[in-house]
Amino acid sequence: MAVVHALSHAHRFVPATGRDSPPLLLLHGTGGDENDLLPLGAALAPGAALLSPRGGVLENGMPRFFRRLAEGVFDEDDVRLQANRLADFVEDAREAYGIAAPVAVGFSNGANIAAATLLLRPRALSGTVLLRAMSPLKAPPPARLDGTRVLMLSGAFDPIVPAADVGGLAATLKADGAVVDHQTLPAAHGLTQADVQIAKAWLSAL
Q1: What domains appear along the chain, each with residue ranges and CATH number?
Q2: Residue 158 is among the residues annotated as catalytic for this protein
Q3: pLDDT tens digits, residue range 3-54?
Q4: Looking at 52, 108, 135, 154, which residue is catalytic?
Q5: Cys-Cys with 195: which of 3, 74, 118, 191 at CB 3.0–4.6 Å?
Q6: What angle, 0 to 180 degrees and rounded to 10, lies between the N-to-C axes of helices 109-120 and 163-175?
């Protein structure tokens, strides 16, 4: 049964039913909400606690985690603001629900805010699964990621995410000390069963 506390983001929380998996922070794509990725989270880490917030920014009525100026052009001031707000939310939720630092699982806009949070507030997360991510910041400050594990799954035929951009994000994370597993799948922007299988295996090995 999902629980909701009065924190900064509307969200759903599903308590853990097992002890082996770290909690997951589920971050939806544009137009999603706090319910969208709960089935994915349950499939990726059965029994894990699931924390799923709704993005606090609206674009034509669709929730997002930060503003953008055009397709693929981000409002970087808002990226920084919203990444810090999300990190604060995670800290409050950890206290409210008694959970450890979560592994973020983000899709599209959710992957981008997860990457930004990792770069700006690395202690908020214990790892990240970035599904169809782009670089959220052109010149992020140096971060001390100290072996934080990151799985990046890109689509070879993704019309939204340029290969050079996501390659730059992977290089930035590696330079900051993250252990990055970046795989490019024969897929477009949408998720495939291969994404689920790879991410599940990666999470089970943490």
Answers
A1: 11-204 (3.40.50.1820)
A2: yes
A3: 555 688 899 999 999 777 899 999 999 999 999 999 999 999 999 999 999 9
A4: 108
A5: 191
A6: 20
